[in-house]
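Collaborator request, handled under Task 6.
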Amino acid sequence: MTAPAEGIDRLIYFVEARLAQLKLSKQEVARRGGPAVDTLIKARGRKGQKTPTVSTLLLLDALMGWQPGSAAVSMLGGRPLSLTARRNRVIARAQKRPLQPMGEGEIVQRLTAQLREELDRLEDDRAAVARRIELLRNVIVELDPDEGLMAEYGDTATLPGADTA
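C-alpha cells returned to the collaborator:
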C-alpha cells in the first residue's frame, strides 16, 4: 500500500509502519506514555479540525524515534526522519569531506581581511562624526549672537526699510 498524499491518514500510515518496524503495539505505545490507541483515529473522524495537537505530534516524534517535527512534516506530504538516519547522514557527510586545518597563510589572510573591513567601518563612522560636528557648529553660529556686532549696532538699531513709527 502506498502512503496517502497528505493529512491525518498519511500520519497514521507512517505511525503504523514505524510501529511494525519497532515491533510495538498501539497499547504498548500508550503504556509508555504515548497517545491513546484511538487518538489518531478520533482525529480522522472529526468534522472540524483534523490535526492533532502540537504536543501529540511531538510525543509521537519522541515515541517513534523521529526527529522533532517529523510527524507534522509527514502530514504535509513529507517523510518522517528517524534520529539514527540523521546521525548516519551527518557521519557520512563528515567522512566525505573531512575537516582540514587552516594554514598559517589562510589565517593571516582572513584576519587581515577582517581588520580592513573594520577599518573601513571606522572610517565611515569618523566621516559621519565629522559631518555631525560641522552641522552642530553651524547651528551654534546661527543661534549665538556675535557680541561685537551687538555692541556696534546696539539695541536701537533698525533694519533697513523697517518702520520706526
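The cover message to the collaborator said: "The chain is about 65% helix and 0% strand. The two ends are 106 Å apart (CA to CA). Please let us know whether this matches your experimental observations."
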